[in-house]
Amino acid sequence: MSEITLQIDGRKVEAKEGMTILEAAQSIGISIPTLCHHEKLEPYGACRICTVEIEARGRTNLVAACLYPVEQNLVVRTRSEKVDKTRKVLLELMLAHAPDATKLQDLAQEYGADKARFEKESSFCILCGLCVRYCAEVKKKNAIGFVDRGTRREVIFIPEIASKECEDCKECFPLCPTEALQATFLLTKALMSPSRPSASE
Amino acid sequence: MPRINSPAELEELRKGILSKRDPNKPCITLCSGTACHASGSKEVAASIEEEIKKQGLSAKVDFRKTGCHGFCEKGPIIVIHPEKICYLQIDPKDIPEIISQTIKEKKVIERLLYTDPSTNEKIIHEFEIPFYKNQERLVFGSNGEIDPASIDDYLALGGYSALAKALSQMTREQVLEEVKKSNLRGRGGGGFPAGRKWEECRNAPGEMKYVIVNADEGDPGAYMDRSLLEGNPHSVLEGLTIGAYAIGSHEGYIYVRQEYPLAVENVGIAIQQAKEHGFLGENIFGAGFDFTVKVHRGAGAFVSGESSALMTAIEGRVGEPRPKYIHTAIKGVRDRPSCLNNVETWATVPLIINKGADWFAQLGTEGSKGTKIFSLVGKVNNTGLVEVPMGITLRDIIYKVGGGIPGDKKFKAVQTGGPSGGCIPEEQLDMKVDFDELAKAGSMMGSGGMIVMDEDTCMVDLARYFLDFLSDESCGKCVPCREGIRQMLKILTNISKGKGKEGDIELLEELSEVTRDASLCALGRTAANPVLSTIRYFRDEYEAHIKDKRCPAYVCKALISYYIDPEKCQACMICLKQCPAGAISGGKNQIHVIDQEKCTKCGTCLEVCPPRFGAVKKISGEPVPSPIPEEARMIARKSKET
Asked: Which of A35, A64, B463, B577 could make a disulfide contact with A47, Cβ separation 3.0–4.6 Å?
């Protein structure tokens, strides 16, 4: 693995090939906000809150720090007017779903996001996919998954698997940044309950 | 069929096919593409076969069911060779006359010919019809000559000679250099130089590499890739094989959507035939190059046309885009180098190899070479598929090829590039069409969709339509795309319902910016184009909706009303009887009045009111005049006796 030198927020960083901007930044103590990122999981790049500004080959671009691989002489700005504005709007879009999520509220304060800017949406979920990916990648159970696409996309438990696997696991619960998961899970459990006694007997 | 092992054998085969064909023997070609199929070409075909038999001409005339000819507006289309007499909008009952008159007697049937609307002249030959005359049909032209199920038809036109040339006379490097020199840019959307992509894929580490045909065309109103794959599948296979040779790939995929059954069928037949002839398989043309192709049928998600999503789908997973900070040419299908181009791009490659990069590069503009196929649809007289050189003006496409706007309507805008593109207003009609100019105007080439709109199109409603499409078709993975589209669609819907607020335009612009800058894939990054381009060129229409609650094009139902002018109403009872909502009151000699509460704004009354009365009016942005008092509704007619 060859050494790569890049610059993050004006500081020189030595990084290894294959590292992401996020990892390189963390290695020198620069924090970049994340919501869908998790150390144990493959980078996903869905929430985009880790968006940073880069200068490469003479062009300025916004990229997701959790995915973008470090390059020699790359210049990264983790905060800039554009980055902050982008994060602010992204937070407002997510807060429409989960206005009471503490994680989002903390970030909202930092970036001046207005949680009531967009009308409240019926779901509590920001579709970060932590639960889905943790269940698939770490637990290898696939008890929870995405259904549908576009603005109708949602997370659901697969009753046949969930009824067998979830009771003793629930490891995805603390991962949820909006606490929506419990509600969904409980709902599924409630729906499943008539058949549960016979299954456990 | 014996395998073809060398270019010499190919040439021999071609001569053999041609020697069995008398160029002077009449041949009826019938367009059997999807559009003509829908307008009845199957019945016409049955009638032709039957009539040829009935008139005892089976040995004297050939009949060929070809792919799409392009002039879909006038289908089903028949062209009679060798004269190229073109008959349009054929009905099965025209066939006996065509056979007895034109085939037997060599007489042209006037009524079936194209009439030039500007001169009222009848035009006999296909190549003289303005729709065709003003095109440059290099890639698409053979469609009308080939039965897609016949490899002989393709070979007769010199098919597979480019592959033979590439494999026997050129090194891999030379093929690559030729394509690079031609400056061929990808016809599927972004316009990335094909040669550079090929080179990147070729140089990428890894033994196993893939070449892929993207036939997941999904833009509303666009069907050029479909027609090419349906009508001339061998040209795509030949181009793909040449690319595979240059790149060093031995496995190819054709990703075609399941909703294109004819394309799936024809490409399957073509692969089988190419295998039998040795154009696919092992040791092609005896040059030691092996290549096989698989067809992967798409399940119908628009986003799967995005290259990384398409590759994910090939792997058997949900077609969701993944970040392309590392290009798919380096890490694509199963993390192996994968070179994806669209149907039209691959089909252009044999031409470049046969005729040379210099020939290709002399066509088009500085930055965009060659020709491009557009699907010209909407409010234009000659809808269909058109192939024109890059650099032609929009005006020439719409007016010379397209024959202008139907009725006495005014041109308003043209949407290019599908849902990811933008609309271009009249002031820019003289713009030269190429990748860069379209981008400068806030739109894009896309895969070549071109939707013409007249004055009856509301630009807010148009933006709303495309955002609605994208809200269904986005994969929904990343926040800026999914949520940005959701909110933009809400705002646009509100505006079109008369609930727009001060500041909505600015909010749309702000959301557009975030969606463009922060989305994961090209779908999200371009999703705001229809919004931004309509705001850019038609801001006044947005303002009319928001401030005056007025829809200038009289489209947005919530902002329009229908009203019967009591001065003009002749109490003819037609609208009253036809109104599906029963919203019109009145009677014989009683002026009719629309009950605005009951009216569903379907527009039937306006449609059926006799033009000589012209009593029904659409109004927007102003209050509906209060109905005239009941006692004043009686029409006093002069009695006929006096």
From this structure: A35
For residue A87, give the nearest of A33, A139, A42 by alpha carbon: A33
Closest Cβ opposite residue A48 in set B472, B473, B478: B478
Q: Domain limits at B250? A: 151-361
**Cα separation of B115 and B113, whole Å?**
6
Residues of A within 8 A of B479 (CB-CB) are 46-49, 90, 93-94, 126-127
- Alpha-helix runs per DSSP H in B393-500: 394-395, 435-440, 459-473, 479-496
Alpha-carbon span A131 to A40, nearest angstrom = 12
CA–CA separation, B444 vs B420, rounded Å? 8
CA B57/CA B55 separation, integer angstroms: 6
Q: Is B627 among the domain residues?
A: yes
- Cβ–Cβ contact A57 with B under 8 A: no
- Measure the CA–CA gap between A69 and B452, rounded to whole angstroms: 43
Which of A34, A36, A115 has its CA nearest to residue A78?
A34
Question: Which chain B residues have any C-beta within 8 angstroms of a chain A C-beta?
Answer: 301, 303, 318, 322-323, 325-326, 470-480, 482-487, 489-490, 510-511, 514, 517-520
Protein fold of A3-78: Ubiquitin-like (UB roll) (3.10.20)
Cis peptide before B82 (omega within 30 of 0): yes
Q: Longest Cα pair distance anywhere in chain B, in angstroms? A: 100
Chain-centre distance of CA B160, in angstroms? 27
Q: Which of B368, B429, B362 is nearest to B398 (CA)?
A: B429
Nearest to B319 by CA among B216, B212, B187: B216
Residues in chain A with CB shorter than 8 Å from the CB of B471 are: 150-151
Which of A64, A77, A73, A63 shows the shortest CA–CA distance to A14?
A73
Task: From first to last of the 201 residues of chain A, give the pLDDT tens digit.
Answer: 578 999 999 999 999 999 999 999 999 999 999 999 999 999 999 999 999 999 987 889 999 999 999 999 999 999 999 999 999 999 999 999 999 999 999 999 999 999 999 998 878 899 999 999 999 999 999 999 999 999 999 998 888 888 888 888 889 988 999 887 777 777 676 667 555 444 433
Residue entry with tokens 């879909």: B72
Both B410 and B485 in a single domain?
no
The count of other CB atoms within 10 Å of the CB of residue A42 is 10
Distance of alpha carbon B446 from the chain centroid: 11
pTM: 0.92
| ipTM score of complex | 0.93
Domain count, chain B: 5
> Where is the domain boundary, B293, B327, B361?
B361
Residues of B in contact with A57 (CB under 8 A): none
